[in-house]
Every structure is written in C-alpha cells, then in structure tokens.
Amino acid sequence: MKTSFLETIKILDGSVFNIQYHQKRYESVLSSFGLKDFAHLLTLIKAPPTGLYRCRLVYDLDANITISYFAYKKRNIKSLKIIYDDSIEYSKKYEDRQDINKLFEKREQSDDILIVKDGYIADTSIANIAFFNGVAWLTPKKPLLKGTSRQRLLENEEIIEADIKVQDLKSFSKVALLNAMIDFDIITNINYKY
C-alpha cells in the first residue's frame, strides 16, 4: 500500500493561511524519506474566493498531489474522554488515520477524546491541545503530531512545552484546541470523562 500524507490548510475568503508552516512540514516529511524535489504548494492551491474552506492536500512519495476543498463548519467540543494508548504513532500527518479513528470510537457520549501516551497527555483526535495554569499556556511536550498551529504558537512564545499528566488537568482553568482550521480555540468549561 502506498503511503500518503495530508496537509489541512485553512482558506478564508480567498486567503490561504499559514502556508509557510504547511510547506515546511511537507518538505520535512519528504526529506525524511530522502526526497529533495518539492512542489511550491501555494501555486497549486486555487482558493475559493468567498467563505471558509478546508483545503485537503494529499501527497505521496511519488510526487502525486491531489487537492480538494470542503466548506468548513467547526465542531463544538465541550467534553473529552480520556483514552490511554501507549502504542499509537502519528508523528507524520498520514492520510490513513485508522488508529486514531479506532480510539475516537471509544469516546462514548463525549465530543472528542484526549489521548494519553506513556503516562502523558498527547493530543485530541483532531487537534493539539494547550492548558492555562493561570500564568501561561502549556502544551504537551510529546504530542502525537507536531501541528502547524502549535509550531507557530511555540515560535511566537504564546505557548510553552511541558510534561502534562492526567492528574494535572484539575489545576488548569482553561483549555485550547490548536489546529490549522481553528487556530487557538479557547474552551472555558471542558468536561473530562475518565
């Protein structure tokens, strides 16, 4: 089976957001396989002129790239089911999300899951996460995926990496989900299901 990778890129009213971070990750993935020929992603994107869209860019190691656009509606997340899995691996943004989807199916009545790996908080099924401790926003040191929004916020010193355990959750006053589509979405009242 061919390995395919994915970039999810935000487009709002014809503007493509944070493309330099997507370009950097795309090049990093290909470089990790010894490839050095990169497309310039922005030249391939034909941004819809009005509305909010999720640009889904799928690429593989044979330089095949397919792009599709979907009108975007944000999911309302108010509850997270804590799910433990020490074997989950998603260090590259693979198109195949089968393992994450299996964990998501265990969410019961919750809106999403909060994955714990090797005793530490990692990510939700769709986003990196950050927690406010009253002074600073902390994000897990070892996420499943180093997302583009997470990277940008770290570079801008808006969030700080930290080891976060399940027992630490009660000490945080706010939670934020981070991904390309929602950027830094603060949730003031989150309900954790154990």
Please provide a brief summary of the model.
This protein is 17% helix and 36% strand. It is built from four helices and 13 strands.
Task: Please describe the biggest sheet, giving its number of strands, its sense, and whether it closes into a barrel.
Answer: 5 strands, mixed
Number of strands: 13
Strand order of the largest sheet: 10-9-8-11-12
The value of Rg in angstroms is: 17 Å
Taken as a percent bin, the fraction of beta residues is 35-45%
Shape: globular
Primary descriptors:
single chain, 194 residues, alpha+beta, D-amino Acid Aminotransferase, Chain A, domain 1, D-amino Acid Aminotransferase, Chain A, domain 2, 2 domains, 5-stranded mixed beta sheet, 4-stranded antiparallel beta sheet, 17% helix, 36% strand, globular
How does this structure look, described?
- The chain is of the alpha+beta class and 194 residues long.
- It has 2 domains: 4-71, D-amino Acid Aminotransferase, Chain A, domain 1; 79-193, D-amino Acid Aminotransferase, subunit A, domain 2 (D-amino Acid Aminotransferase, Chain A, domain 2).
- It has 4 helices and 13 strands.
- A hairpin with a 4-residue loop joins strand 3 and strand 4.
- The longest helix has 14 residues, at 19-32.
- The chain starts with a strand and ends with a strand.
